[in-house]
Design goal:
It is built from 8 helices and 12 strands. With about 230 residues, the protein is of the alpha/beta class. It has 2 domains: about 120 residues, Rossmann fold (3-Layer(aba) Sandwich), CATH 3.40.50.2300; about 90 residues, Winged helix-like DNA-binding domain superfamily/Winged helix DNA-binding domain (Arc Repressor Mutant, subunit A), CATH 1.10.10.10. A 5-stranded parallel sheet has the order 2-1-3-4-5, with helices on both faces. α4 links the parallel β4 and β5. The N terminus is likely disordered.
Length: about 230
């Protein structure tokens, strides 16, 4: 068994054999694991367990994974929790829908345990690196971006930001007036261990703009995006 510090993982799937397979392999690696077999139970379990990562199936009875993810991202204590979708569906719209509601990664079934473990370890490594490298706060007019607590306030009011939206905003605000291509942002925010569509960047930019105002993140046509600290106009 691994001697790494225990991280908490919640597995959510309606297939019992998948739950048992993943629970066995993750527990063997030293992770603290709990399971749920539908979306409604997952939300209840996550609120008490406060996992560092959630493996979430999309197609489930009672409540699908997309709606479950949406509800999970509304829980303040779970804003920095990784959510990795597990699905047998490979259509692009499923991936876009997952990232729309705050997914961090997306992996297709059938699941290969060693590949999944590698993906999970890469997510945790990147999180540790970013927290140590990006320590501190960024102030932009009445907006405060706190990298230690993963919170954003505007005019003293806290704004809920899922993990990847927060990281996108913090990264762009930390490099004002510098233009980044979509590929740049995919590399810096999602890393090289996760495959996501370039369109995912556009989705997250739109979500951030809705929360802090249209003017701060500007589109450089044919190139990418940049953060304008003076861009307060809508």
């Amino acid at each position: 068994m691994s001697t790494r510090p225990s991280q908490r993982i919640l597995i959510v799937d309606d297939e019992q054999d998948i739950l048992e397979l993943l629970q066995y392999n993750l527990s063997k690696e030293g992770y603290e694991v709990r399971v749920a077999n539908d979306g409604r139970k997952a939300v209840q379990e996550a609120k008490s367990f406060l996992p560092n990562l959630i493996l979430l199936d999309i197609m489930m009875p009672y409540q699908d994974g997309v709606e479950t993810c949406r509800q999970l991202r509304q829980v303040p204590q779970l804003q920095s929790t990784f959510i990795l979708f597990l699905t047998a569906r490979s259509e692009e719209y499923s991936e876009v829908a997952a990232f729309e509601v705050g997914a961090d990664d997306f992996i297709n079934k059938p699941i290969k345990p060693r590949a999944l473990l590698s993906r999970i370890q890469a997510l945790f490594r990147r999180n540790t690196t970013q927290l140590s490298a990006d320590d501190g706060k960024t102030f932009v007019n009445d907006i405060v971006i706190d990298r230690e607590s993963y919170t954003v306030t505007r005019g003293g009011q806290t704004i809920a930001f899922p993990k990847k939206e927060f990281e996108l905003l913090a990264f762009l605000a930390g490099h004002p007036n510098k233009v980044f291509t979509r590929d740049d942002l995919l590399h810096h925010i999602w890393g090289t261990d996760v495959y996501v569509l370039a369109r995912t960047v556009d989705v997250h930019v739109r979500k951030v703009r809705e929360k802090i105002g249209e003017g701060y993140i500007t589109t450089v046509k044919g190139v990418g995006y940049k953060f304008d600290p003076n861009g307060q106009s809508e």
